[in-house]
Amino acid sequence: MEQRVSLITLGVGDVARARAFYEQLGWQGQEVEETVFFRAGGCALVLWGRDKLADDCGLTGDDAGGFGGVALTHNVRSAADVDRIIVTAERAGATVSRAPAATFYGGYAGCFTDLDGHVWEIAHNPGFALAEDGSIIIPEFGG
Amino acid sequence: MEQRVSLITLGVGDVARARAFYEQLGWQGQEVEETVFFRAGGCALVLWGRDKLADDCGLTGDDAGGFGGVALTHNVRSAADVDRIIVTAERAGATVSRAPAATFYGGYAGCFTDLDGHVWEIAHNPGFALAEDGSIIIPEFGG
Predict the structure, then answer these.
(1) Residue B12 near residue B31 (C-beta atoms within 8 A)
(2) B41 with A41: Cβ contact below 8 A
(3) Which residues lie below 8 Å from residue B58, measured CB to CB, with a gap of 6+?
(4) Distance between CA A116 and CA A125 in Å, rounded?
């Protein structure tokens, strides 16, 4: 597992309202499928509905202390890398909350929670290239 | 506010145990004052005691749904930048959980929660240079 965070996803109650907040701070986002991407140097900050994010990670959105509303995504170059990292994480004590599987966007990903319940998604997304230095490349979606 | 995340801090129950977990995944960290820093491209992942992190952000560590155990730090080049961004955030609807003030490490920082309770720290830390491109430069601490 390379030492990199690719996306910082914040689960929010209202995507448009959250986007407006960050744009008031000076950030410029672009939206695709009710998800807002902000370029952030070598990584990207993402706003997505809190319940959708929890569901996508194999969790419930209940505020019972399990899921804190944030997930960290680590993008890799192949589906095999996803499998390898999820296995390594489980061996290290992680709980796999979503077994690796094909995703709706044509990629492949799995999720685990670390020892403190922090949520990680390990993802291969052919639509998001990785630069030679590992930086994620968010395409122009328009909108 | 430039479009950048400098540190991704994960509040953990046991720093040594959490560090061991990430090192089992292949990450290499360095520790200073019971805080572990992992370089992560243009940003850094940080492990710190959950209660200390909450306290440092002007919050309690209670698992009542307010604080999810993650804080995002945005480093800037001056104390004046900290003040400016905290004011802008508050105007945009953020709740300032810790007014800007000098920090124990010789810097200056303030914290706010966004509309969904996500925690941001805006920090000027003379010990962590920012590259021309905004990437944070974590020095060698040894250990």
Answers:
(1) no
(2) yes
(3) B97, B98, B111
(4) 26
Asked if the C-beta of A13 comes within 8 angstroms of chain B's C-beta atoms, the answer is: yes
Answer whether B70 sits within 8 Å of A65, measured CB to CB: no
Residue A139: which of A109, A116, A105, A115 has the closest Cα? A105
Q: Tokens 């960050």 identify what position?
A: A22
Q: Is B37 on the interface with A (CB under 8 A)?
A: no
B chain contacts of residue A45, beta-carbon cutoff 8 Å: 5
Q: Which letter does DSSP use for residue A73 in this model? A: E
* ipTM exceeds 0.85: no
CA distance A112 to chain B (A): 12
Interchain contact, A68 vs B69, CB within 8 Å: yes
* Residue given tokens 């040594």 in the structure block: B16
Q: Where are the beta strands (DSSP E) in A35-105?
A: 35-40, 43-49, 70-75, 95-102
Is-contact B21 B12, C-beta < 8 A?
no
Residue B100: strand, helix, or coil: strand
Ramachandran category for residue A58: left, alpha or beta (phi over 0 → left; psi -120 to 50 → alpha): left
Question: What are A37-87's pLDDT values in tens digits?
Answer: 888 776 778 888 888 877 776 665 555 455 565 677 888 899 999 999 899
Q: Does B41 touch chain A (CB under 8 A)?
A: yes
Type of residue numbered A72: L
Q: What size, in residues, is chain B?
A: 143
List, in sequence order, every residue forming a beta bridge with A108; answer none if it has no partner. Answer: A102, A124
Q: Check B39 against A3: CB less than 8 A apart.
A: yes
Q: Single out the residue of A98, A115, A119 nearest to residue B21, CA to CA.
A: A115
Cα B29 to Cα B23: distance, rounded to the nearest angstrom: 7
pTM (global) more than 0.80:
no
Task: Give me the domains of chain A, ranges plus CATH numbers.
Answer: 7-137 (3.10.180.10)
